[in-house]
């Protein structure tokens, strides 16, 4: 089956990508929240800083999320499913409002698909997302070490550190075997496959949270 995108799906992907970028920018730039609350400017807060943070957010959490969901879709279509991403606009609003008050719970939507599936196929569709984030972590890991060894700071350092951290967190979080998360579907298919992927993913996620 050919991979296709409807106008609605492209719109949902774009809105979710932008909303997550804005949410992470609000979470990271707390002075921006103070400026919005006061209706004025905050000393030391520049448009360049905000713009850089937004770009970093779009290129890290945004891309990590987009490719995670697209990986689900690609594998689902490979198994003959009719699959499409659907944004959850209510949860996107929650993500932005939550970021404004200092916390972020991101559940921007999901790939929905229909058709007959075996437990293995369903598990492989779920596995595609976290594995994609792990692969993206490797992509960010090389420039991260270069930045680390050369002592580079600024935009590139922030981009590589955030990209590595976000993708490790996305992989680990989604491997939890609860609720609608990918880990539950993977474990329902194979506890062994789940453990092989989940254990290192969770360890790396904890490291990303407390070390990076």
TrEMBL record:
Keywords tagged on the record: Hydrolase, Membrane, Metalloprotease, Protease, Transmembrane, Transmembrane helix
Residue ranges crossing the lipid bilayer per the database entry: 12-28, 40-67, 87-112, 124-147, 191-211
Keyword Disulfide bond among record annotations: no
Record InterPro entries: Metallopeptidase_M50B
This protein's record includes keyword Transmembrane: yes
GO terms of molecular function: metallopeptidase activity
Entry protein name: Metalloprotease
Organism field: Haloarcula salinisoli
